[in-house]
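INFO batch 0412 | record 1 of 1 | parsing
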Amino acid sequence: MTDVVIEKKGHVAIVKIEHMKAMNALSTDMYAQLEEAFDEVGKMDDVYAVVLTGSSRENPKNGKVTHSFVAGADIAQMSTMTVEEGKAFGNDSNRVCWKIENFKRPVIAAINGFCLGGGCELAMSCDIRLASENALFGQPEVGLGITPGCGGTQRLARIVGLGKAKELIYTARGNYSAQDALAMGLVNYVYPLENLLDEAVKLAEEIAAQAPIAVALCKEAINVGMQTDLNSALKLEGNIFGECFATEDQKYGMAYFLDKNKEKPAKEFKNK
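INFO prediction complete | emitting tokens
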């Protein structure tokens, strides 16, 4: 990986996209690097939450700094694609986003600037989204003669509702602000740029302090349950709830709660 960097802070992994010469645009190679990065993080048994973020660059001529989560897909690469190549690109990008959406640990997107097209779709595959005040959102694909190809026509409607999703996609606007995104439910919180990553890590650490198996099972129950009817989803939830009682974390967590003198050391789950 040359354009994706992994940093570890305690039980949190930070995956940072650093391909600012193309505004972190998602090419076939960039998707491959993201997939490799999450495969690497998946091997880290002591990582219980992940933060995915972008990077920045300074223009040497005027000193202006540009920030980007992901400004979209690589238009230069896509411009010459055949039908079959387009399908393959869409399938590859969807596979990576599906991997992130179903990653065994919660993934928080720290959106630090441009979040357009494929970047917005990448962010939507994360569990929770935080944005900096300067972030910009949109699905501008129809203005390029294509459709969203990495979940935009599906995840967006599930997150912000049908009408708002159609507005974003049909108009190809790329100027929805962080406050717009907050109002429509696309992001959870908005922070000053300088505080964004710290706030994302703080939230990740709060999640990582809980019972990791229980958190992972909650993610599974929510993701699978949202794709089925309520009755089936409740049965799934009941079964997953029962599975928790085979873990050491359940025994420890409840024993700690019931210990009125709190003579045990500070709560630390075993992830078993």
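INFO post-check: The radius of gyration is 20 Å.
INFO record closed
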